[in-house]
Amino acid sequence: MSKNYYDAADLRKFGKISEWNEELGAKFFDYYRKVFEEGALTAREKSLIALAVAHTEQCPYCIDAYTKDGLQKGITKEEMMEAIHVGAAIKSGATLVHGVQMMNIVNKLEM
Amino acid sequence: MKKSLKARNNDIANTQRQLEILSNGIFKKGDLPTFAEKISETKQFPLRPKKLEILQINLGYMCNQVCEHCHVDAGPDRNEIMTLETMQQCLKVIKMTAAHTLDLTGGAPEMNPNFRWFVEEASKVGIKDFIVRSNLTIIKANKKYHDLPEFFKKHKVHVVSSLPHYTKGKTDKQRGDGVFDKSIAALKSLNEVGYGMQNSDLKLDLVYNPSGAFLPGNQQALEQDFKKALKTDFDISFHNLFAITNLPISRFLDYLIASENYEDYMTALVDAYNPAAVANVMCTNTISVSWDGFLYDCDFNQMLNLKVASKIQHISYYQEELLQNRNIVINQHCYGCTAGAGSSCQGVVA
Fold it and tell me: Distance of CA B85 to CAs B88, B103, B111, Å?
């Protein structure tokens, strides 16, 4: 076993999760494939959303997978970086909007 | 401008060295199956030709560009050029072949001094689809090439041109500074004479190949993106986009090794192996002729100097029936044509 918690080679083994629960694994991968098909959103748009979420989730496997997927789809590095900023803006906004909760409590408790 | 691997005396310019790299390492260790082992799994070994459809002729390795990924290792310093005598031998074959497509490539085929004579003569034969692979920038490279769009039109040539991306950054990175602007200007010139326009029988197709160590995405989706961007940004029209996978040979192999991407790239190709693509790979319906008249299963085998496994190995002895009775020569680079939806000079195959 690798001494690192994350190993890039493990991404290729993702499918193996089905070996220990075939039914749920198959359901998950069917759902996953379906989600990324062209629909109301293009596969290109979905790839950029996935890349942004991969960053907010800080999943190195997902970042690897969706950076490569973006390159394959002809997405430029500028578009990728903008997508990550969207994720970062929501992430930081989600943190900062809780500041209102802090302010409410302070206002309620302070004289 | 950069020099070719050959002019730089780079180790990879040696085809034997390339074959050693492709045959050893991860494949010899057994980490990945060889291409022969892989196609044996679906009983497709040995690979055999089907009906001959395409005669692809390489007019020489000279080119006005030195692209980072070029499998030909073409460039201005390459002086391998097809002679008039070999062209005459090719013409004899064009007149008797069962192939419906003639595909002229290079280098920049237009740089061959006898290019126009050859196109004029070959177009008289009445072959169904007459392709010239033009790198676009040659049209703007020198005054003597400025009338190429008119020349192509006169001979009803089907123009197939490389454009790795609809943005300047990605295109210039792969093909050299200034290539994008010249390519756009050349595409406009082709559109002006009627090439690539809706309902026009003057066919203009583009070739997309990834600008790095990754595989091409969905051809149809890429075509839509290219059409939208080129129309919106430059008012340029074209017919089809062919998405082609970069094969791990020559300059692209050199890049893969230097950037430490070789093993990951080969793994990606093997992981994306699609047995359905094997049935339609281009070596099954193509004969590739080199500048010096030798015969190959495809352009990639030509660059690896892997001649056809036949008694007939030169255009001067061409006998189609005998040639068709051969096994196709394969190696690990062939995974490039069977990944995902497959890849050929005409785009996806599966």
Answer: 5, 19, 17
Distance CA A64, CA A51 (A): 9
Maximal CA-CA distance, chain A: 61
ipTM of the complex: 0.80
| A43 to chain B: closest CA residue | B221
Do residue B267 and residue A12 have CB atoms under 8 angstroms apart?
A: yes
A36-67 confidence digits (pLDDT tens) = 999 999 999 999 999 999 999 999 999 999 99
CA-based nearest residue to B133, from B68, B57, B212: B57
- Per DSSP, what are the bridge partners of residue B309? B327
Report how far residue B306's alpha carbon sits from residue B287's, in angstroms, rounded to the nearest whole number.
13
A71 in reach of chain B (CB within 8 A): yes
- Is the CB of B217 inside 8 Å of chain A's CB atoms? yes
d(C-alpha B34, C-alpha B40), whole Å: 10
A91-97, Cβ contacts within 8 angstroms, sequence gap of 24 or more: A91/A56
